[in-house]
Design brief:
The chain is mainly alpha-helical. The chain is 46% helix and 10% strand. It has one domain. A 3-stranded antiparallel beta sheet has the order 1-3-2. A hairpin with a 4-residue loop joins strand 2 and strand 3.
Length: 111
């Protein structure tokens, strides 16, 4: 089964908005899952969500899709940083999508 990556750069940026640091596996899921599934996972104000247990997505996580995902991250300004156990991809610039996401988060009320 072939898993398709999002084809539009603006959509890819929207899916990664709010995340300045990603693992390749997390980026893969954000960029390859169907839009309905992404919207359902991303509906809350939090930028952290559990990766859905989608068998087709897991099967599609091969060497070719890893390279494609890494290439998209590099094109979008993420830089690979080697950690202790895995490589993460980081960026330092702020996108309009990030600002939009931050404006949707409700303030925390301390009591």
């Amino acid at each position: 089964m072939s898993v398709q990556i999002v084809a539009d750069a603006a959509e890819a940026r929207r899916r990664l908005a709010g995340r300045n640091r990603l693992t390749l596996f997390n980026a893969y899921f954000r960029l390859h899952m169907p839009r309905e599934m992404f919207d359902a996972c991303d509906a809350g104000p939090s930028t952290w969500w559990d990766i859905p247990a989608d068998i087709a997505l897991l099967r599609g996580y091969g060497s070719e899709t890893k390279l494609t995902t890494a290439g998209v991250l590099l094109l979008l300004g993420y830089i690979p940083v080697r950690g202790r156990t895995t490589t993460t991809y980081r960026r330092s610039n702020i996108w309009d999508e990030d600002l939009d996401r931050l404006s949707r988060i409700e303030p925390i009320v301390y009591q």
